[in-house]
């Protein structure tokens, strides 16, 4: 009885693994609720079938609760997107996904990783800075926001080698 109650009230850590093309619908659904413009199932499927794309997923039971996806080009990679289910944000899942992903990219010979992030996305900016990314450029007014001129996209880089 006690063991059953413990299982019911104890949350297991999500498991991390490589994402595959059959994950495209779940990735698209999470992306859609996480960003201003979601990507379609087809866009994710095309990415996941590309041999230069690396993607990791976080699963809680049988439910996708996070992912990270990047495209590799020779010794560089660009992180295209990172998303975590709203109910699990702030618990270190994005950090765990990012760390796994960066280790895998390094093992594949990637020396530099780039990404763009909305300067107003404080949680993401904090995550990337803590992971060793530094600002190398800005795209002013890149992210539209209501009637204003929009937030800048920060271009960040991390050296892996």
Could you give me the name of the CATH homologous superfamily of the domain at 8-115? Answer: Gcn5-related N-acetyltransferase (GNAT)
Q: Briefly, what CATH class of the domain at 8-115?
A: Alpha Beta
What's the order of the H and E elements? HEHHEEEHEHEE
User: Which parts are unreliable, with pLDDT below 50 for 5 consecutive residues or more?
Assistant: none
Total count of strands? 7
Q: Mean of residue pLDDT?
A: 91
Oligomeric state of the chains in view? single chain
Q: Rough shape?
A: globular
The spatial strand order of the largest sheet comes to 1-2-3-4-5-7-6
Alpha-beta classification? alpha+beta
Distance between the termini: 51 Å
Structure in words:
With 161 residues, the chain is an alpha+beta fold. The protein has a domain at 8-115: Aminopeptidase (3-Layer(aba) Sandwich). The chain is built from five helices and seven strands, in the order αβααβββαβαββ. Strands 1-2-3-4-5-7-6 form a seven-stranded mixed β-sheet, with helices on both faces. The longest helix has 15 residues, at 93-107. The relative contact order is 0.13.
